[in-house]
């Protein structure tokens, strides 16, 4: 079985968000996929099987299967369109979040994702204690988004992972208005056994919606200010959909020899 390591939301290896992509002829057991995801110890390992119409795609963290992952979808599209469907500029994935279509446009991969409804919630002392700085606002969808007054506050955060795991949201995001991009964010995932996701595409189904509404814009340029860093371009499409795009860089191709 081939496995590819692809850095997503970057054009330079060893930056952006790394994902493992496994292309298979048939599904192994769920337990086997969990074990390989633990072995890789990346924020996501993607598993792909060809179907009559498109591909079936599943994502696993080192701890669990997830219903939506942006960077591993981008990495999967990079692998399929560069190594398996080289004459095509579009691939369709069947996932737990429905059909996800990715188009290749020059060097970018444009993902058509669902948006997630947000509601404002009260800022709490627990949020302040978890992040170490009090947010000025908080909104909740699938993930928690805490808005901070200044970009430098987001960049310098060193949150308490145990306390983060006790506040709402699948992922706990920190964001602020950016100086060079529309927004700067970071994504912390202790509930998924990931201290910090280097660049989180699925979180921007919410973060980009928030900033688009706040800035009265349809398109948002976003930067994820992790140690690795990465850039995302987001465009509201209407009908509760969003296009999230970025580049990708191949790091490694390997053969999995252990029996799955």
Q: Please tally the β strands and state the result.
A: 18
**CATH topology type of the largest domain:** Diaminopimelate Epimerase, Chain A, domain 1
Q: List segments where confidence is low: pLDDT < 50 over at least 5 consecutive residues.
A: none
Cα-based radius of gyration, to the nearest Å: 18 Å
Count of helical stretches: 6
Q: Which range best describes the helical content: under 10%, 10-25%, 25-40%, 40-55%, 55-70% or over 70%? A: 10-25%
Proportion of strand residues: 35-45%
Structural class: alpha+beta
* Count of distinct structural domains: 2
Characterize the structure shown.
With 260 residues, the protein is of the alpha+beta class. The chain folds into two domains: 2-112 and 245-255, Diaminopimelate Epimerase, Chain A, domain 1, CATH 3.10.310.10; 119-239, Diaminopimelate Epimerase, Chain A, domain 1, CATH 3.10.310. Helices cover 21% and strands 41% of the residues. It contains six helices and 18 strands. It has an 18-stranded mixed β-sheet that branches. A hairpin with a 5-residue loop joins strand 12 and strand 13 (183-189). The chain starts with a strand and ends in a 5-residue tail after the last strand.
């Amino acid at each position: 079985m081939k496995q590819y390591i692809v850095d997503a939301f970057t054009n330079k290896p060893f930056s952006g968000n790394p994902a493992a992509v496994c292309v298979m002829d048939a599904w192994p057991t769920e337990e086997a996929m969990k074990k390989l995801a633990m072995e890789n110890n990346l924020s996501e390992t993607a598993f792909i099987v060809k179907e009559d119409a498109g591909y079936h795609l599943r994502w696993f963290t080192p701890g669990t299967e997830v219903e939506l992952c942006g960077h591993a979808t981008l990495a999967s599209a990079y692998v399929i369109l560069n190594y398996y469907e080289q004459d095509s500029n579009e691939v369709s994935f069947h996932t737990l979040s429905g059909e996800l279509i990715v188009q290749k446009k020059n060097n970018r991969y444009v993902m058509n994702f669902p948006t997630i409804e947000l509601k404002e919630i009260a800022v709490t002392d627990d949020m302040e204690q978890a992040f170490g700085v009090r947010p000025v606002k908080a909104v909740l969808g699938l993930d928690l988004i805490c808005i901070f007054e200044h970009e430098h506050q987001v960049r310098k955060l060193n949150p308490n992972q145990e306390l983060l795991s006790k506040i709402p949201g699948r992922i706990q995001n920190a964001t602020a208005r950016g100086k060079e991009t529309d927004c700067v964010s970071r994504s912390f995932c202790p509930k998924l056994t990931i201290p910090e996701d280097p660049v989180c595409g699925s979180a921007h189904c919410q973060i980009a919606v928030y900033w688009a509404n706040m800035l009265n814009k349809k398109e948002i340029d976003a930067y994820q200010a992790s140690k690795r860093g990465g850039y995302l371009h987001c465009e509201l499409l209407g009908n509760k959909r969003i296009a999230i795009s970025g580049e990708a860089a191949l790091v490694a191709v390997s053969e999995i020899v252990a029996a799955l």
